[in-house]
Amino acid sequence: MNNNTDVLENLIEEFSKLPQIGRKTAQRLAMHITRRPKEDVEKFSRALLEIKDKLRFCNVCCNITEYEICRICDSPKRSNNVICIVEEPQDVLAIEKTNEFKGKYHVLHGIISPLDGIGPNDIKISELLRRLGGESGSEVEELILALNPTVEGETTILYLSRLIKPLDIKITRIARGIPIGSDLEFADEVTLAKALEGRVVV
Predict the structure, then answer these.
(1) Residue 99 to residue 143: CA distance in whole angstroms
(2) Pair 180, 151: CB distance under 8 Å
(3) DSSP letters along 41-101, please?
(4) Handedness of CA 90, 96, 97, 98 (dihedral sign)
(5) Which fold has domain 6-54?
(6) 1 falls in which pLDDT band (50, 70, 90)?
(7) Which residues, 6 or more positions from 101, have their beta carbon under 8 angstroms from its beta carbon?
(8) pTM > 0.85: yes or no
(9) What crossing angle do the helices spanning 189-197 and 89-96 adopt, rounded to 10°?
């Protein structure tokens, strides 16, 4: 039987909806919130609301940003010749931590997964093709496919490589330094850096 108050139970329930947060962890987080000063909780609440109000997708790479064009796409120090294609925004953060990649990104926001009903039209593939066909697309010499090494990731890599080959752009993939079944966001910087260095032509 649950002896929590309704408001506490509601908070535990909300925390337990977060990825990789079980009931016990959710309970610990909720109890931590009850011990914080009201000002801290209000600041936390504002940060959550601001994320929903201010974040959007970059008009170029589909990464999350507060601006029409994200800082990476807008940076004159980044190369327009190489685009690294990733599954989710957190993969951009993981690769950026290595300080090895100096090109730009394209975020798919998912991968092709027929069993889950996710097809090519459900992720940001058409945005990528528009980008490659646009004015800046002529500068692109290489696409790095840096997708998670899962069955769905492999399916997406195969689909993209077939789609892009006629455009006469070199297609590579990161080396298999990333364990099968793992996520890029959990890989350490050294493993990711080596995987980028050892990428191979698809």
Answers:
(1) 18
(2) no
(3) HHHHHHHHHHHHHH-EE-TTT--EESSSS-HHHH-TTS-SSEEEEESSHHHHHHHHTTT--
(4) positive
(5) Helicase, Ruva Protein; domain 3 (1.10.8)
(6) very low
(7) 82, 84, 95, 196
(8) no
(9) 90
Where does the chain hold its CATH 1.10.8.420 domain(s)?
6-54
Sheet harboring 200-201: ordered strands across? 104-107, 82-86, 142-145, 170-173, 200-201
15: number of Cβ within 10 Å: 19
Q: Which two tokens stand for residue 156?
A: 């997406």
Among 202, 141, 136, 139, smallest CA distance to 174 is for: 202
Contact 97, 106 (CB under 8 A): no
DSSP letter at 174 equals: -
Confidence at 151, pLDDT banded by 50, 70, 90: confident
Please state which architecture CATH assigns to domain 78-201: 3-Layer(aba) Sandwich (3.40)
The CATH 3.40.1360.10 domain(s) of the chain lie at: 78-201
Tokens found for residue 173: 């993939």
Q: How confident is the model at residue 177 (pLDDT cuts 50, 70, 90)?
A: low
Cβ-based neighbours of 100, under 8 Å, separated by 6 or more: 192, 193, 196, 197
Vertex 125 angle, CA 96 and 100, to 5°: 15
Phi, psi of 100 (to 5 degrees): -100, -30
